[in-house]
Design brief:
Blueprint: E1 4-11, H1 22-37, E2 46-50, H2 53-56, E3 75-79, H3 83-95, E4 102-109, H4 115-119, H5 136-151, H6 155-169, H7 186-190, E5 194-196, E6 199-200, E7 207-218, H8 219-225, E8 230-239, H9 253-266, H10 271-274, E9 277-279, H11 285-294, E10 326-327, H12 331-344, E11 357-364, E12 370-378
Parallel strand pairs: 2-3, 2-4, 7-10, 9-11
Antiparallel strand pairs: 1-7, 1-8, 4-7, 5-6, 8-12, 11-12
Helix pairs in contact: 3-12, 6-11
Length: 379
């Protein structure tokens, strides 16, 4: 299979309430990625966007984004999932042999969206939705409680994930300003108010405004564009069953199966020793520990024992992860971009020394029902 490289990227800074519109953000991201790669609009052959009709408040929500996203007079399509899934679509487009440059962009303006109300539409319309007892808020509590009770993990151990990621976010100039908390304590996290017991407010990835974009190209084209392409060595994806009651929420089967698929494609045998850095889309702090275990970085229930600091044994979310900002439809794409920055040595204050191989993930659905994972490698 031909090697596909990531040859450019750009991310708009995250805002809780941006003072300019989504179209300006989309243009800034797509134009910024092209400028970084030294390319022009005419070089684009396909554009994959990632938005959501419910979040944008209208059907066919990409119809007004074609021009500003670079899709005018080019092949254009939309993925209504997470931006990391849009990367897969772009990857397949390039692998088809029909495209030499794919622009993949994703993001939204959570400040214009009643986020939790919208997510209620993910529930069963007959039994769950009318009562609203089961929703994305309460399901997070079910998930964290199931994990804690099965493995004896404490709320303090999960709060330490928040402290680490918010401290990392303080080093990331593109992170949400309100999430850049370098001096946060475990006590602060535990006392931050109940989101859904035992999840507290600071354990939640804060929805925000932002758009990000990256460029994909086949090997020969990639090497003409940059001497530092990042290669996609493997990708895996899986979706668990719809009903929460049919799933073991103490783990994440979809992430485990996605990892097996990606590792097989990339030839990864011992992920804990072969992976240098991980950027994981943790919608809630406890998910970082669950995912780390499913990825083979630690035994079940032992994720909190990983030294995952920037200078640790296996750095996880050195950028701050989704706890540093969660722009709907763009968060997984940003995880891929952040992993690329680590592999090209462009991560600044949160750079992991000597990073050569990374994983990055995206997710959708309640309790991470669907996961996608990439294995990336420096040139």
């Amino acid at each position: 299979m031909e090697k596909i490289g990531i040859v450019g990227y750009y991310q708009v800074k995250m805002y809780s309430d941006a003072n300019y519109g989504r179209y300006e953000m989309i243009f800034e991201a797509s134009r910024g990625a092209l400028d970084k790669a030294g390319l022009k609009k005419k070089d684009i052959s396909t554009v994959i966007s990632c938005t959501n009709d419910y979040y944008d408040g209208r059907t066919i929500s990409n119809c007004f984004t074609v021009e500003v996203g670079g899709g005018y007079m080019a092949d254009e399509s939309k993925v209504e999932m997470d931006g990391a899934h849009a990367v897969l679509y772009g990857l397949m487009r390039v692998l088809s042999g029909n495209h030499n440059l794919a622009v993949v962009w994703g993001g939204s303006m959570a400040s214009c969206c009643p986020y939790h109300s919208v997510r209620l539409y993910e529930t069963d319309p007959t039994w769950e939705r009318p009562l609203a007892y089961v929703n994305d808020i309460t399901s997070a509590g079910f998930q964290m409680r199931a994990y804690m009770e099965k493995y004896g993990v404490t709320a303090e151990e999960i709060a330490k994930v928040v402290v680490k990621n918010k401290k990392n976010a303080a080093k990331n100039p593109l992170a949400l300003e309100e999430a850049q908390l370098a001096n946060l304590s475990v006590k602060d996290v535990l006392n931050s108010g109940i989101h859904a017991d035992p999840v507290t407010e600071l354990m939640v990835a804060p929805p925000c405004d932002s758009v990000a974009a990256l460029l994909l190209a086949p090997e020969k084209q990639a090497l003409k564009i940059t001497d530092k392409p990042v290669w996609i060595k493997g990708v895996g994806y899986n979706q668990d069953t719809y009903y929460l009651g049919d799933r073991d929420l103490s783990g994440c089967k979809s992430m485990n199966l996605a990892a097996k698929m990606a590792y097989s494609a990339a030839g990864i045998k011992d992920p804990s020793s072969e992976i240098d850095v991980a950027e994981l889309f943790e919608a809630y702090a406890h998910e970082e520990l669950i995912f780390a275990e499913e990825l083979g970085f630690a035994d079940k229930g032992k994720g909190a024992e990983i030294n995952s600091a920037i200078n640790g044994d296996l750095p996880i979310n050195p950028s701050g992860g989704a706890l540093g900002g969660n722009p709907l439809c763009g968060t997984g794409l940003i995880r891929v971009i952040e992993a690329v920055k680590q592999l090209t040595g462009e991560a600044g204050e949160y750079q992991v020394k000597g990073a050569k191989k990374a994983v990055a993930s995206g997710q959708i659905g309640m309790c991470a029902q669907n996961n996608i994972l990439y294995v990336l490698e420096a040139n």
